[in-house]
Amino acid sequence: MTITAALMGGCSWFSDDSDFKMVSFPGVYKIDIQQGNIITQDMINQLKPGMTRSQVAYVMGTPLLPDSFDKDRWDYIYTLKPGGKERTQQTLSLFFENDKLTRFNGDFRPEINQEASTHAQSDAQGAAETLMKEQAEDER
Q1: E strand or H helix at 75
Q2: How far apart are CA 113 and CA 37, in angstroms?
């Protein structure tokens, strides 16, 4: 009886990276653990300097833990630990002056607006085609 208890106790826990966790059994589903505010690139692309706090809150949502010492800073943190894999973390800090967004920093950078660049390319292509038609008419 004592040997069985010792063997079962020895198989229940082991140390991995100084954290204790249960022995993983093959085929057991491990859930993904998400915490914090989800941050997407689309949200970052919508942020513009001069936005009000309410506009930023509409795009980003409110931060989970507002800074009680600095009311002009909002921090967004998102962590994801996929089942059985390493935890990843993304952060974003927004800074306000006079209730207007002035800057932000963190793990994200705004992308160049793909739609605007597509319109600029089509406008340039249209202008080139018009110029070519005018030149062809002048040659006649």
Answers
A1: strand 73-81
A2: 24
Predicted TM-score (pTM) of the model is 0.59
Instruction: For residue 61, give Cα distances in angstroms to 6, 36, 100, 131.
Output: 51, 11, 16, 48
What confidence score (pLDDT) does residue 67 get?
A: 81
Q: What residue spans of the chain are helical by DSSP H?
A: 2-12, 41-46, 53-60, 114-139
DSSP state of 91: E
- Per DSSP, 17 falls in state T
Cα 21 versus chain centre, distance: 29
Tell whether the model's pLDDT for residue 111 goes beyond 70.
Answer: yes
Higher pLDDT: 60 or 30? It is: 60
Concatenating the DSSP letter of every residue in 95-118 gives EEETTEEEEEEES--PPP-HHHHH
Q: Which two tokens stand for residue 103?
A: 């800057």
Residues whose CB is less than 8 angstroms from the CB of residue 110 and which lie 6 or more positions away in sequence, other chains included:
44, 45, 47
Q: Which of 2-11, 21-30, 34-43, 98-107 has the lowest mean pLDDT?
A: 2-11
Does position 86 have pLDDT exceeding 60, yes or no?
yes
Q: State the residue for tokens 């833990």.
A: 65
